[in-house]
Design goal:
Largest sheet: 7 strands, mixed
CATH architecture of the largest domain: Sandwich
Distance between the termini: 15 Å
Strand content: 35-45%
Helix content: under 10%
Structural class: mainly beta
Number of domains: 2
CATH class of the largest domain: Mainly Beta
Shape: elongated
Amino acid sequence: MGSSSLIYAQKKGTEATNTQSNEVKKTNLTLEKIENIVIEENVSETPNIEPEIINTTPPDTIQSEEQVQTYLKGYEFTFVGGDDYYLPRNGTKAGPVNDHICDAIVLDLDSTCLSLQQTNDHSDKDFFGGCIPNGVTSIFYEFTVADDMDMFSITMDNFLEPYGVQLYFMLLTGPCTSPTILSVDCTYTPYNVGESYTHNFYNLTPGTTYYIMIGTQPGEGNWINGFDMCFEDNIAPPLITGPEQDCYGAIPVCDSVYNQENSYTGIGDIDDLIDGTTCLEGGESNSVWYVFTPQTSGDCAFEIDTEMDYDWALYDLDDIGGCANIPGATPVLCNYSGTNGITGTTLHVNATIPRSEAHDGNPLMSGIPVTAGNSYALLINNYTADANGYSLIFDVTA
């Protein structure tokens, strides 16, 4: 983005101050049971295979030292056959050795890297849900978090071909015969030769064994022919809380660049959103509020510079009558894209409001004209519970 031609001032008539805390005030949080989850596994192309019915139900809660609420994007999960999971047996395999979750490659953290991994047309189609569609070809890895760690990172590079392919990650735990899905994430492989991609899993429980499913979109030309992978467990940077997690305590943005060193957990003291009023299907989650007041009218754009999945909603506070009316208001712009990386708006403005992007939409959308003296509130949701922070970059032309 270019340099900003407007100066941003503190929101009018509020006591909003930058009082963000560097402490983690909420520990031992509980991940609420995610209703209507289906864990499904495709029957392979071998015909007449009856599904195996495993009588097990998901736990009501999942405990973690620093667990946060997570919502799954995309395709709605539904139970199949009441409280039973249907896990069809795989048919004849002719794929990678780690084609099935129970054949997952155990990652030796002392070795740190593996070469020439692949997901290809011979991989079976496995679990799906959230932003992961039915029919994904996938492979599996297994790892156990060290006693003093709570984060796991995978770096993929040396992709043979093709580039810019849809890439899916699913984190599971429990026995391989009846696993529980903890999270799903969807992104793309690098578009250029020599680039790498790093994916982080946060809020892990020390000593717990997890499974990672890595998948690609089905269809010729969509599978990854080969890649190298390095991995490590670590201690995640602290997630923070503070009064800025509610609209009334929003951080005033006075410069064109605001660096957020630590990400947030929880939703503050007030759940500002009502289900159905925004594009954010899970509501407010690991959120923080910012407020800015342009001093001249013009076209406004902003970017959230990150490598993970952040969502956002932008409100014109003067138009809706202030923070008190946010629960019943529709944001002028809203973005729930499931794509990792930079999200926000561009200076190719569109005065039509309200506008929004769903889970399968574009992370970047056209900006809007802004009015001098009006105050705008920006809600940012940390969907993936990322702990590495981000930069908030504004650009306004008069």
